[in-house]
Design brief:
Pfam families: HEM4 (PF02602), TP_methylase (PF00590). This protein is an alpha/beta fold and about 500 residues long. The chain has three domains: about 5-115, Cobalt-precorrin-4 Transmethylase, domain 1; about 120-250, Methyltransferase, Cobalt-precorrin-4 Transmethylase, Domain 2 (2-Layer Sandwich); about 290-420, Rossmann fold, CATH 3.40.50. It is built from 19 helices and 22 strands. Bound molecules: S-adenosyl-L-homocysteine.
Length: about 500
């Protein structure tokens, strides 16, 4: 019988960007993935929708599946599927029992490959600004398990702390949180001075990363006071002192802040990326849903008469995307627009146009609908101008009104609908509880509809009680005015009405 291949893939220590390209390619081809608690679940987004997912993770003291059962599952999966991925936190061969799993596969003549990963023992200290070796002061490093039982007998002793302390400059200890007092004692007995620097880094490479530094003398009680929980990496040696100068990850401007993004993940991927780059933990709470493809007879008519317009106006990237999709569906392309001028409300919308090789003839300096209208009326629009405005069903009605007042003809063409999103009740309750407990640093509002829908989802009653605890960040004056209608005073309003402007405002850079 033919068997599939099992790929033992290292998922890296947590930050999804630390997966290798080869690991990603394996996930993209996988028929089944068998994964652990330490592998970041967001990596499963690389899977094909039909790929099977099996969680076999272990959390301290609580085993979901025994190692023998995992081994058996790997063998069985290889007999059923062509491409089996065993995804393990960090590197599969560093304290990951990857060796045992590979041996079982070899014994059963199942083809396998090892895809090394970025091990927590190197990456977690690095994210804490601690190089595990350093010229002149640390020329050797040992990776050690701290998991062995303190009640070990002489015969089953595994870690020779004495030898380790004598021969290696840096000790990187995995799985050591529970045994920290014991480990400290062993190292002291082995002759390491009390003032030897020690770091304990929890949830390394994640937005929740936390570094505790001290010495062999102090670290155990510090860890107890601070209620340190696994996963955590313990680093012992002089390199720990470099943390003070090299800590970069925890120093990023929005590090440690939980920021709510109120549009869906796709629409706000750019905002999410900007926030994460600055160190924020992003919480997605989509309040609006974009619905496209609703039959619209006006659309057909407008598309047929494109040549009769002078200007096309876009106030969102969605409108650009859906309009050009429709043009292509009608078997036409950008040549149908050769006589039209195009206005875009802001840089992101203009950039979306560029993906269709089109240059916006007008983009206001300030990215608001007022500025768009004012700028066009000032020099570009006459009484006979004909404008086509593909937009959302909720677009700002003032835009069309003002052009009409100036004598222009404007056809408002809703090409998509913005609807209230319907998150699970559990998600709404979770967010409310975070707000109640002051655990949200910012809630970002990027349009008036995000405000209306947010209020509808959390409810007026909640708002009345907790409005002072809602740390709103608004992208511009129109959104701010909408927030104020509900008695919500934003703590910042971006002076540049872009995602970058919003991020700068939250950073306090304006
Ligand atoms: N194969 C993994 C290690 C598995 S052992 C690797 O190569 O990284 C599990 C231990 O790794 C944890 O107890 C903890 O000590 C460490 N660890 C894994 N991920 C970590 C993280 N994100 N932050 C801190 N320590 C981590």
């Amino acid at each position: 019988m033919q068997t599939g291949t099992v790929y033992l893939v290292g998922a890296g220590p947590g930050d999804p960007g630390l997966l290798t390209l080869k690991g990603k390619a394996c996930l993209e081809k996988a028929d089944i993935v068998i994964y652990d608690a330490l592998a970041n679940e967001s990596l499963l987004n690389y899977l094909q929708p039909q790929a099977k997912r099996v969680y076999v993770g272990k959390k301290a003291g609580q085993h979901t599946m025994k190692q023998d059962d995992i081994n058996a599952l790997l063998v069985e999966s290889a007999r059923q599927y062509a491409h089996v991925v065993r995804l393990k936190g960090g590197d599969p061969f560093v304290f990951g029992r990857g060796g045992e799993e590979a041996l079982v596969l070899a014994e059963n003549q199942i083809p396998f490959e090892i895809v090394p990963g970025v091990t927590a023992g190197i990456a977690v200290p690095a994210y804490s600004g601690i190089p595990v070796t350093h010229r002149d002061t640390a020329t050797s490093v040992a990776f050690v398990t701290g998991h062995e039982s303190p009640d070990k007998t002489e015969e089953d002793a595994q870690v020779d702390w004495q030898r380790m302390a004598r021969s290696c400059d840096t000790l990187v200890i995995y799985m050591g949180v529970k045994n920290l007092p014991y480990i400290v004692q062993e190292l002291k007995t082995a002759g390491l001075p009390d003032d030897t620097p020690v770091a304990v880094i929890c949830d390394g490479t994640y937005p929740a990363q936390r570094t505790l530094t001290g010495t062999l003398q102090t670290i155990a009680s510090q860890a107890q006071e601070q209620n340190v929980k696994p996963p955590a990496m313990i680093v012992v040696g002089s390199v720990v002192k470099l943390h003070d100068s090299l800590s970069w990850f925890e120093q990023r401007p929005l590090f440690g802040q939980t920021i709510v993004v109120t549009r869906n993940a796709d629409a706000d991927a750019r905002l999410t990326n900007l926030l994460e780059d600055q160190g924020a933990q992003v919480l997605h709470f989509p309040t609006i849903e974009i619905v496209e493809g609703i039959p619209n007879p006006d659309m057909e008519q407008a598309m047929q008469q494109l040549a009769s317009y002078d200007w096309l106006i876009f106030t969102s990237g969605n409108a650009v995307r859906i309009f050009f999709q429709q043009l292509l569906t009608d078997n036409r392309d950008i040549r149908a627009l050769h006589d039209l001028k195009i206005a875009a409300i802001g840089k992101p919308t203009a950039e979306q146009l560029q993906t269709y090789h089109l240059h916006a003839d007008f983009v206001p300096d300030q990215f608001t609908s007022e500025q768009l209208v004012a700028g066009m009326l000032a020099q570009r629009i006459g009484t006979n101008t004909r404008i086509l405005f593909p937009c959302s069903n909720l677009s700002n009605p003032h835009i069309a009104e003002q052009f009409r007042q100036a004598g222009a003809t404007i056809d408002v063409l809703p090409v998509y609908e913005t609807r209230l999103s319907t998150p699970e009740a559990k998600k709404v309750d979770e967010l409310k509880s975070l707000i109640q407990h002051g655990q949200v640093s910012w809630i970002t509002f990027t349009s008036s509809s995000t405000v209306h829908n947010f209020v509808q989802l959390v409810g007026q009653e909640f708002l009345a009680e907790y409005h002072e605890r809602i740390p709103a960040a608004s992208i511009g004056p129109v959104t701010t005015a909408t927030l104020e209608e509900y008695g919500l005073r934003p703590r910042v309003t971006a002076s540049k009405h872009t995602y970058q402007g919003l991020v700068n405002a939250m950073r306090g850079d304006e």
